[in-house]
Structure formats: structure tokens, C-alpha cells
Amino acid sequence: MVESPMIEICPLSALSIERGAAALLPDGTQIGVFLLEDGSVHAIQQHDPYSGTNILSRGLVGTHLEPGEGEEPGEIVPTIASPMYKQVWNLDTGEVIDAGGGEKKPIDIFAAEIRDGAVFVSASPRPRSAAA
Q1: Does any domain span residue 1?
Q2: Which of 3, 61, 95, 97 has its CA 20 to 30 A from that of 129?
Q3: What does pTM read for this prediction?
Q4: Rounded to the nearest 5 degrees, what angle is found at the Cα of 56, between the Cα atoms of 120 and 108?
Q5: CATH number of the domain residue 52 falls in
């Protein structure tokens, strides 16, 4: 599989912790970029598949406890909730955690990293998992 090139989006200092920022990729794709309290950065599609609007960068950052296997404790995963209808997605996978009673509509996740004080994002989304 060929890796998508990484594109510099902004200086890390332009992001606020747990607040999204909208960005535009060279091909016109709108994304939302998030800096979490643990210092990680995440990038997702800007388009909310439930409302049909480009608002996910305004979403509510949170966490969700995934169920564990048997008596094993679950894993805490970062999430984003739509500011419109409050559906919730896993920021790592794009998988729907809470579809608000509707059909599960996953979102695209873009690889994101910090290099030399700047945020870089993949030019194309990661392939979706079968679970998403």
C-alpha cells in the first residue's frame, strides 16, 4: 500500500487543546484538526454525515470507555461528537460509537503528526476498517 504524502497544515501553536480547527487540503477536502490534552493530534473529515454540513471541527471532544473482553477492563478512546445532532465517533478509527438511534455512518480519519512544531496531515484518509 502506498502511503499518502503528509502536508503541513499549521504551526502547533495555532491549535488550542480540545478545540477543533478547520483546514483545507490541496485537493479541496475539508478536515477538522484537534490537539488533545495528551499532546496527540487527530484529523477527521469536516463533513458531518448525519446533518450534511461541514461542522465536525466544531465538535465536542471527549472520551469513551470501550468494553473489554470478559473481565478485562476496556480501553479509553478519544471521541468527537457532532455539534449538530450529537452522534459520537472514535477519533482513532472513525467508527461510530453512538449513532443517536440511527444508521451507523463512519467518518474518515487522516493520519496526523507533529514535526518540528508544525502539524502535518495525510493528503488522503486512512482506509476504513471493517468494524467502521
Answers
A1: no
A2: 61
A3: 0.91
A4: 60
A5: 2.102.10.10
Cβ atoms 45, 27 nearer than 8 A: no
In a domain, 28, yes or no: yes
Determine the Cα–Cα distance for residues 22 and 56; give it in Å rounded to an integer. 8
96 within some domain: yes
**Spatial distance between the Cα atoms of 63 and 132, rounded to a whole number of angstroms:** 17
Distance (Å, whole) CA 14 – CA 82: 22
Q: Answer whether residue 112 is part of any domain.
A: yes
Cα 122 to Cα 51: distance, rounded to the nearest angstrom: 25
Q: Name the phi and psi angles at 129, rounded to 5.
A: -80, 165
Cα gap 84→102, rounded to integer Å = 14
What number of residues does the chain have?
Answer: 132
